[in-house]
Design goal:
Elements lengths: L1 E5 L4 H11 L5 E6 L6 E2 L7 H11 L3 E4 L8 H22 L4 E7 L23 H14 L5 E6 L1 E3 L8 H12 L4 E4 L5 E6 H13 L6 E5 L4 E3 H12 L4 E4 L5 H5 L8 H7 L7 H10 L2
Parallel strand pairs: 1-2, 1-4, 2-3, 4-5, 5-6, 6-10, 7-9, 8-12
Antiparallel strand pairs: 9-11
Helix pairs in contact: 1-6, 2-3, 3-4, 5-7, 7-10
InterPro entries: Epimerase_deHydtase, NAD(P)-bd_dom_sf
Protein name: NAD-dependent epimerase/dehydratase family protein
Family: Belongs to the NAD(P)-dependent epimerase/dehydratase family.
């Protein structure tokens, strides 16, 4: 099986790459802006016809799109998260209509939900910010493409290699800098989120790629449990042997205030892919700290 992986250098992409390369009989082709990529392309600016030509040469059986932007200007977010998947689908229809597409979406595509509601794939998608809106546009491009295409709507990924700009990355850096008895200053940590291990999300990618029958639409990939950001801080403190103080001095982000609760219903992923999370929350945080 020839698998084209886009976004292999990102947080989720790196985990997906490792598990896809472990598949027996799989050949994973990297696609992107990195020099030496098997399929050189930047979905944000790619010409659909030229990308189609590259896809014909690569002849993938499956394409996994982990490429995405979580920050940047409105133009960057729109180009990467909305235009990118649309261009990819157009090129696939022209060059490799039989290839399976697995695209990573985001829980930010959903809007607010009251506690203790678990979001299902049929709940309204009403994102609060531009990031979520552009990710939703990408999801709609994929689900409306007519291809053998599936969106894995990943909730809040944690685990080894978490980026510095993420909540977990900032906490790891703050704890390391503070020393065992110091103080780590953060914003408000009361918002509830569904944290899922990045390695579990990568396993969902593998299951989607290798599913024997076409799978289309959207599947939630989360833990099924809402936890506060404060629990992430406490878990990392325990893993680090940190006995200092976590000081919630700031008000936190406007999005956290507007979206105090988010929890995934992961029933459909279990039914369709046979997937469920396998990493315990404490294990995820311990491994994250150990890999810093």
């Amino acid at each position: 099986m020839r698998i084209l992986l886009l976004g292999a250098t990102g947080f989720l992409g790196r985990h997906a790459a490792g598990q896809l390369r472990a598949l027996r009989g799989a050949r994973v082709l990297d696609g992107g802006r990195t020099p030496g990529s098997a399929v050189p392309c930047d979905l944000a600016t790619a010409d659909p016809e030229r990308l189609a030509d590259a896809l014909r040469t690569a002849a993938p059986d499956a394409v996994v799109n982990c490429a995405g932007a979580t920050a940047g200007s409105p133009a960057v977010l729109a180009a990467v998260n909305a235009r990118g998947p649309a261009v990819l689908c157009e090129a696939l229809r022209a060059a490799a209509p039989g290839a399976r597409l697995v695209h990573l979406g985001s829980a930010a595509e959903y809007g607010p939900a009251p506690a203790p509601h678990s979001l299902t794939e049929s709940d309204p998608a009403a994102p609060l910010g531009l990031y979520g809106a552009t990710k939703l546009a990408g999801t709609l491009a994929v689900t409306g493409s007519g291809l053998d295409a599936l969106v894995l709507r990943v909730f809040n990924p944690l685990g080894p290699g978490a980026p510095d700009g993420s909540l977990a990355g900032r906490l790891v850096r703050g704890i390391a800098d503070a020393g065992p008895e110091g103080t780590v200053r953060t914003g408000d940590l009361s918002a509830h989120r569904d944290f899922v291990d990045a390695r579990d999300a990568a396993r969902a990618v593998v299951l989607a790629v290798t599913a024997p029958e076409p799978v289309t639409g959207v599947l939630n990939i989360g833990s099924g449990t809402a936890r506060t950001a404060r629990e992430v801080a406490e878990g990392l403190s325990g893993a680090a042997g940190f006995h200092g103080r976590i000081a919630e001095d700031g008000a936190g982000s406007p999005r956290s205030a507007a979206l105090p609760w988010q929890q995934a219903d992961i029933t459909a992923a279990g039914r369709v892919l046979g997937w469920k999370p396998s990493y315990a929350f404490g294990t995820t945080l311990a491994d994250l700290w150990a890999a810093r």
